[in-house]
Structure formats: C-alpha cells, structure tokens
From TrEMBL:
Gene Ontology biological process: cell division; cell wall organization; peptidoglycan biosynthetic process; regulation of cell shape
Name of protein: UDP-N-acetylenolpyruvoylglucosamine reductase
Cofactor: FAD
Reactions this protein catalyses: UDP-N-acetyl-alpha-D-muramate + NADP(+) = UDP-N-acetyl-3-O-(1-carboxyvinyl)-alpha-D-glucosamine + NADPH + H(+)
Gene Ontology cellular component list: cytosol
Source organism of the structure: Candidatus Jorgensenbacteria bacterium GWC1_48_12
Active site: R168, S218 (proton donor), E308
Protein origin, superkingdom: Bacteria
Gene name of the record: murB
C-alpha cells in the first residue's frame, strides 16, 4: 500500500487490487494500482503518480458497463468518488460519483420530469453522461445542461453541444477527460405520476435483471436503421424496429444466441443481448462469445454489432 499525500488529506494508492468486485459483471484479474479520488486535488495527485511512474491511468465509475481483463491490468485504475448533490429550482447539480438512481429519485420527488424512464439503470451519473445512458426511448443527454470535466491540465465546463451526444455516444467516450460532475435541467412534471412511471419501469426491469445477476447490462448496442443498407433492412422484421433502432437482441436471437455458452459465460435463455457470468466467467469467454455472435449476425444480416460495454 502506498500513501500518497495531497494538500487536503492522504489518499491511498493500493497495489495489486482484485478487479472483479469493482464491476457488476464480476470478472477480472488484478490491477497494478488502484485508488479512489473524492476531489480534484486527489485526482491530480493520482495522475501525477501515474505520470511519474510512466504508467497509464484509466477511469472507473460504478463499474456497471465494463469488462476487466483476466490477467493483470497495467497502470493505475482511478475510481471517481466525487459526491454531492444539490437542487436549485429545476436544475440538479451532482458530483460524478452520485448514483444515477439518487439523481432520479431527487428529480422525481421535486416533480422534475426527464429522467424517470432511466429508473433502474445502475452506475453513477458520471458514467451515465459518458455513455449517454438511456432507456425506453430517452437518454440522459436530454436533460444535460453542462458537464464539468478535468482535461488533464485544468477543469472546465462543456456545454451539452460540446459533449456531442449521440445514441450511447459522447465526445467524453473518446477523449481522456475525467467527468467531475454535471448540471441537469428538467421540465416541470407531476411527482406522483413520475413516481408511478419509475416504479413500473423498475418492476419491469427486475424481471430481466434478477437481483444479484452478474452482468454489464445490454452487451451490444442496438443498431440505428439509418446506418444499415437496404439489403439488410429487407431481412428485418419491420415490426421489431423500435424508435429507429433494430434491437441487437432481435438480431442475436435470430442467430440462436439465447442459451449459448462459453466457459463460465452464457447468454440468457430469455434475452439474446444479455451476457451473464455464472460465477467463474472469464473475459476470454466473453470475447469468444462476442466474436462468434458478431460473425453470425454479420453473415446473416450484414450488420456489424458494436459493443456497448467497455473493455479495459
Ligand atoms: C443490470 C444492468 C442494467 C443496465 N441497463 C442499462 C440501460 O437500460 N441503459 C443503459 O444505457 N445502460 C444500462 N446499463 C449499463 C450501465 O449501467 C450504464 O452504462 C451506466 O451509465 C454506466 O455507469 P457506471 O458509473 O457504472 O460507469 P462504468 O461502468 O464505471 O464506466 C463506463 C465507462 O465510462 C467511463 N467513466 C465512468 N465514469 C467516468 C468519469 N467520471 N469520467 C470519465 N469517464 C468515466 C469508464 O472509463 C468506462 O469507459 C446496465 C447495466 C447493468 C449492470
């Protein structure tokens, strides 16, 4: 264990830390160095540590959308633990590590509309902004006003436009930025109605994601109809297209994904886009299954599936 002193306090950088408890998929070997940062000074200190050692650093939120490697992950894994949540009229400002669920709860209680359909999505609000998390035709970008980032040198704020949000996409996914927090702007709604929607969605989701399931949510992104050829479209049952997207689950089920298995990883028998760890799953099993399924979907439909999960 290495105690790294910052001006504000002492941050601990741990060596050789097991990765699987850090993700909902419960997969992974060990990371060379690991630390949690609760404020900017600690983040700067952590990055200085990595730079001095000439090792890479990676950022982790709630770990609900990641696949860690089986062996040793080189470098420093920095878990962003910047908290704090504040509501002012129809705006909520939250630290990156605040759970998305807490932001949603705060908004609903205040009768603020815009995030209720994202109820039940695990992880932090920072992670949600990076991947533009969403469900039931809505995504967090609809309410993002600005995002506070650290760009490697200084902190600054990005406007919604600068974030370049798309379907499960943002510029934040492709730049070495650390999200420190976000300000969300909501429309007025009825707290009771919003609460009902939220509860109903959570109930529906619990049927798919049983409590304790070891998974990273949907594995592949759905496919935007505007990105596929006419030939591909002719092979798709149009009634399965939802909000301009072909569900990856539909394509995967058509190629027999349900129930497939590689080592300790299997595809749920009720959903083709749900990779589950039986308990002894390995990243290698995940990659193998993913490769096989991508090939099958490509050969049958001419569609290249893209992972929603992030490999480390
Ligand atoms: C049961 C289950 C259901 C799910 N359902 C949905 C769903 O309906 N819709 C949906 O969109 N997603 C869903 N997901 C996926 C996941 O919950 C979301 O993608 C979530 O927003 C990820 O947040 P996180 O904090 O866990 O991020 P992590 O998994 O920790 O990280 C994801 C990526 O974001 C980066 N990152 C995280 N925090 C920061 C930060 N502060 N600064 C910079 N980079 C950062 C990481 O480096 C990584 O590349 C589900 C997952 C599970 C396990």
């Amino acid at each position: 264990m290495i105690a790294s002193t910052t001006k504000a306090n002492t941050m601990t950088i741990r060596k050789n830390v097991p990765l699987s408890p850090l993700s909902t998929f419960r997969i992974g070997g060990r990371v060379e160095y690991f630390c949690e940062v609760r404020r900017l000074e600690e983040l700067s200190e952590a990055v200085r540590f990595a730079r001095a050692k000439k090792i890479p650093y990676r950022i982790l939120g709630g770990g609900s959308n990641v696949v860690f490697p089986d062996g040793k992950l080189k470098g420093l894994l920095i878990k962003v633990s910047v908290g704090g949540i504040k509501r002012e009229k129809n705006r909520i400002t939250a630290g990156a590590a605040v759970l998305l669920a807490d932001v949603i709860r705060t908004s609903i209680r205040a009768g603020l509309k815009g995030l209720e359909t994202l109820s039940g999505i695990p992880g932090t609000v920072g992670g949600a902004v990076v991947g533009n998390a969403g469900a039931y035709g809505h995504s967090i970008s609809e309410v993002v006003e600005r995002v506070k980032i650290w760009d490697g040198k200084k902190t600054r704020e990005l406007s919604k436009k600068e974030c370049q949000f798309g379907y499960r996409e943002s510029i934040l996914k492709h730049k070495p930025y650390v999200v420190l927090g976000t300000t969300l702007k909501f429309r007025k709604g009825d707290a009771k109605k919003l609460g009902k929607i939220s509860k109903r969605i959570i109930k529906t989701r619990e049927r798919k994601y049983k409590p304790g399931i070891k998974c990273p949510g949907s594995f592949f992104k759905n496919v935007l109809v505007k990105n596929v050829s006419k030939k591909t479209l002719s092979k798709i049952d149009k009634s399965r297209i939802i909000e301009g997207k072909i569900p990856a689950g539909y394509l995967l089920e058509a190629v027999g994904a349900k129930g497939m298995r590689s080592g300790g990883i299997y595809i749920a028998d009720f959903h083709g886009n749900l990779f589950v760890n039986s308990g002894r799953g390995k990243a290698e099993d995940v990659k193998k299954l993913s490769r096989i399924l991508k090939n099958k979907v490509w050969r049958r439909f001419g569609v290249r599936l893209e992972e929603e999960v992030r490999y480390f």
